[in-house]
Amino acid sequence: MEIAVISGTPLGQSDSIVATAYVPNSLEFNAPNPPLHHTMASIAPSRLAALVKTRCAVFQTSYNPTSVRTGAKYLRARLRGPSMMNYYPPTLSLSSVIRQFPEMELVDAVEQQRLQDIEDRKKRGKGAPKKAKSKADSRRTSRKR
Q1: Region entry Disordered: which residue ranges (predicted)?
Q2: What CA–CA distance (Å, rounded) separates 44 from 8?
Q3: What is the CA radius of gyration of the chain?
């Protein structure tokens, strides 16, 4: 059964659009589907394996006939490290700005205070010991056991 739809164009133009659609009747809706096992021919397993092997060669994938877990999905995945590193912007510190622009002669007050504290401790004899230049100068070798 076919239905024809005619619609006029706006503004009184003489052209008309004709569209037809097929509408099945109620008997065609209830018709059973043909069984699938009769319509498809069975394929030999050896031919199917050869097809899979060829497909792997063409599309450059690994041939895995026994379905062993290889981890290929994770090895193919995009690396996460660069995205994680770029998530936060680089942190700015006063010391890095001072190193980049030495001609500006900026002063880091916190660093100056730290250096002054170290100097004061050394004057009182509370500073860090000097580093040994050789094995004989080290405190560990001179200490008796």
Answers
A1: 117-145
A2: 59
A3: 42
β partners of residue 21: 3
pLDDT in tens, 82-102: 999 999 998 888 999 999 999
Rounded Cα distance between 14 and 8, Å, is 8
Backbone phi, psi, residue 11, to 5° = 60, 25
The half-sphere exposure of 99 on its side-chain side, counting CA atoms within 13 A, is 5
- Whether the model pTM is above 0.85: no
User: pLDDT tier at 131 (50, 70, 90 boundaries)?
Assistant: confident
Query: In the structure encoding, which two tokens stand for residue 5, read together?
Result: 């739809």
What pLDDT does 136 receive?
79
Mean pLDDT within 5-11: 50
Contact yes or no for 103/112 (Cβ under 8 A): no
List all residues 6 or more positions away from 139 whose beta carbon is below 8 Å from its beta carbon.
Answer: 129, 132
DSSP H helical ranges for 7-108: 26-29, 36-39, 45-59, 72-76, 81-85, 94-100
The whole-angstrom separation of Cα 3 and Cα 25 is: 12
Distance, CA of 142 to CA of 136 (rounded, Å): 7
Q: Kindly tell me if the per-residue pLDDT of 39 is higher than 70.
A: no
